[in-house]
Amino acid sequence: MTDPLPVRSFKRRASRVTAGQRSALERLWPAYGLVVDGRPLDLAVLFGRVAPVVLEIGFGMGEATAAMAAAEPGHDVLAVDVHTPGQGNLLRLVEEAGLTNVRVADGDARTLLQDMLAPAGLAGVRLFFPDPWPKARHVKRRLLDDGFAALVADRLVDGGVLHVATDMPGYARQAAAVLARQPLLEPVEAPWRPPTRFERRGVDAGRPPVDLAARRVRR
Fold first, then answer.
1. What per-residue confidence (pLDDT) applies to 171?
2. I need a labelling partner for 41 at 20 to 30 A (CA). Which of 32, 76, 77, 132 fits?
3. Can 131 be counted among the known catalytic residues?
């Protein structure tokens, strides 16, 4: 294990789990779920095949995750979040769509990246609408900082892409600055992603999303 992690970038929230979400968790977690415990992961064993793996951090209710996994059956998606209703909903969507290329992780994404995933092991990392921590005293809790960008760059294969989306202007400015400072990442056009219900709410409230992407340079 490595040194203690920095300030936690998320807060677990007590939320109601519906009957359908609870059922999906109880039935599907043994096959598709894992707990972030710091032990190294063998991704080929986890997914039962050798394929490019994308890590999605903070997937909300999982609609975009399931849609992108269905659109890219040749890729595997490791989706990590701490929101129990979202975990259950994503598992429900996975079952409804007959997807076999999604695994759901419960826990801290930093621990997952730092302690459980090997260097040059990920084809992509998605960070869609992370907690913006808008108050000035909480900015230090934002996930995307220089240290996180360096960690992601180390875990990406050559040509692997970090894709960030946010509807908070302050976070977008910070993200752009962080990516520009990271010498192992170069800017590229952001890949396609489907909109989510939360994103549409932001648009209705006058907060259009900003998508940023950067590619790992050759080692």
1. 93
2. 132
3. yes
